[in-house]
Amino acid sequence: MATVRDARRVQLPSRSLSSGAGAPGSPSPSGAPGRRARRAAVAGCAAGALLLAGCSSDGDGGLGVESPSASSKEDGPGGSAKPSEGASPSERPAPPAKGSVKVTTTLTTKLSSPWGLAPLPGGDLLVSQRDSGEIIRVDGKSGKKTKLGTVPGVAPEGEGGLLGIAVQPGQTSLIYAYFTTESDNRVVRMAYDREQRPGNQLAAPDTIFKGIPRGTVHNGGRIAFGPDKMLYVGTGEAGEEDLSQDKDSLGGKILRMTPEGEPPGQGNPERDSTVYSWGHRNVQGFDWDREKRLWASEFGQDTWDELNLVEPGKNYGWPEAEGKADEPGFVDPVEEWKPEQASPSGLAVARGSVWMAGLRGERLWRIPLRGEKPSAKPRAFLKGKYGRLRTVVSAGGDSLWLVTSETDSRGTPGEKDDRILKLRVR
């Protein structure tokens, strides 16, 4: 059910991390067991003789190695083996979630590498385009696109570029953005003046937080304001897996900060640190339920992608554990999937369920909730119909906005890609 890297345990340093932190923590020596395992896997994949199943991308930059013994069920959670005929009722898996998903509107088409989505009061949407560094306003009724401007300093490479965007509730004249520069990932905010001509509606960015490790892979990038009015930031470990267990690094974390980019003082494990949780590999989706609990999706590597219930000060295991490891000191995911069925990016909570967008899996997962646990097995919708799915955001009531990701260099875009779809879910 899980991958546990080795018996070693990283001792987390007690030093705090401020919003002005610069360079990330130092990577482990090249002889570290985890790094040796990664090199061995890559070498085996290149040789092509030792792995029966071969190697494939996880859809967002990791190495996906499917075990020959791994079983999968087309519409069920990844890796769920079919129970035997004689299995007792207690041993049989719970039935899959019911419900329905209907695409009611294709709001707009022909977006280029869309990534982040921020709804505005009145129904319009802001969307970020990763590779061009542009922010586009999309009319929520007609789908008409208006370019606000291009964010200066964006350095797209691999999975990096202009990623998540957010608008502070009650303050729509400021747009927050997370993007990759030549030296780091950072969070900025920009004044937005709709009265200016299209293409010139964004003021120069004000950097509120910097020093997040950058890489060609695993840049994280999702940002959102929580119910506590704090800004939450999901980061990746930039391909340096040991950063996730290093509390002196901003990589592989969920960060919580004020709208000005400062430690909030209360609610984080350490008063002078923005680090909220750690042991993450690459967080690209999160949202809150009615009880203000934080749910986050996470890319695994070879074996398990994860849905986590995130709490402050908890360690989510990477790179020591992947999936449900049942190891002391680590929090197990609530659900897990094989990478070929998920590779999850965006996440939204609506109608009592978590909705999780899959890139490599090319499907939208529904995970119905009862308190802190799923009430039924996850169910997949839209499988393969619209290709890679990047971002999902609540549109209020029984509706969701869904952003496809076929033009991100890993898809096979059609004439109308990429798209923003409106869904009705039940």
Task: Briefly characterize the structure.
Helices cover 4% and strands 36% of the residues.
Notes on the structure:
The protein has 426 residues and is mainly beta. 4% of the residues lie in helices and 36% in strands. The strands form eight sheets. Strands 22, 23, 24, 25 and 26 form a five-stranded antiparallel β-sheet that branches. The radius of gyration is 20 Å and the shape is globular. The N terminus is likely disordered.
Key attributes of the depicted protein:
globular; single chain; mainly beta; four-stranded antiparallel β-sheet; 426 residues; disordered N terminus; five-stranded antiparallel β-sheet
- The count of β-strands is 29
How much is the average pLDDT? 84
Listing every helix as H and every strand as E from the N terminus to the C terminus, the arrangement reads EHEEEEEEEEEEEEEEEEEEEEEEEEEEEE
Structural class by SSE content: mainly beta
